[in-house]
Amino acid sequence: MKNIKIPPDHPRRESLKIREKIIEGHAKTVVATAGLIAHGRGEGFDYLLGEKTSKPALNAINAGAAALLTAQKPVISVNGNTAALVAKGIIDLAHITGAEIEVNLFYRSQEREQAIKELLEEAGAHNVLGVGNKASAKIPELGSERRRVDPNGILVADVVMVPLEDGDRTEALIKMGKTVVAIDLNPLSRTAQKATITIVDNIVRATPKLAKAARKLKQDMKKCYEILRYFDNKRNLAGSIILIKERLSEIAEKCESLNHEG
Ligand code: ATP
Prior knowledge:
Blueprint: H1 13-27, H2 33-49, H3 55-70, E1 74-78, H4 80-97, E2 100-103, H5 110-122, E3 128-129, E4 137-138, E5 148-149, E6 159-163, H6 167-175, E7 179-183, H7 190-194, E8 197-199, H8 203-217, H9 221-230, H10 233-261
Parallel strand pairs: 1-2, 1-6, 2-3, 6-7, 7-8
Antiparallel strand pairs: 4-5
Helix pairs in contact: 1-2, 1-4, 3-8, 3-9, 3-10, 4-5, 4-8
The site of adenosine-5'-triphosphate (ATP) has 20 residues, from helix 2, helix 4, helix 7 and helix 8.
């Protein structure tokens, strides 16, 4: 597929570059058609958040890195959008934290899971879980294809990182007693509300920051436990929602003052 040329001074350059990656992933069957729409929902919230990593997101990134590092069996769940956007970053994070990588899809087909596995392997992954016969276990109480998990991965994990997740599975994983670290730009989603640690940020920005935090925290495991003891997800999530509210108020005030000037 031919990439379009985005002018270097285009005000929405970064966002358009990310969009191109998703479109490319869709052409390679890595991203499901519904994944394009899910991306659009994320873009909308990113716009409201000012397209940068906020203070609450950074708090959650530190807590997420600490949760992965202190886990007995951490697993990073990967769907099509995640693979298309941050395959290398996820592998880096898995390497630092000792986490396994497992493919888990709402729209599962052999072709898609294979395409995602290949993309991850091209990016340097060695042992991708959850593909083909490996996804032989089931999460109880879940109707969608997302219930299919690897008996050596998500099924037995104590900490699961779920970027761009759906709410049903987050709830099911929590019910199974797992610590769930979510990355979701929508602070109102069921996933964001139900997860143990919610990183309200674009996965493209959050993943390298998670790797950086994990690299640093790995030198100080005592600090990891301390971060986890004081982290309050509900309060932190409220911080992201308040941020959106304040940004909207500021923009509304600017609009009003322009209206008075005119
Ligand atoms: P829920 O079931 O949790 O209420 P949902 O129905 O919105 O959520 P999906 O459509 O399955 O769930 O998930 C997509 C989620 O991923 C959306 O909440 C969207 O905001 C988020 N998202 C999309 N792209 C990104 C991205 N690049 N980075 C972080 N989050 C993203």
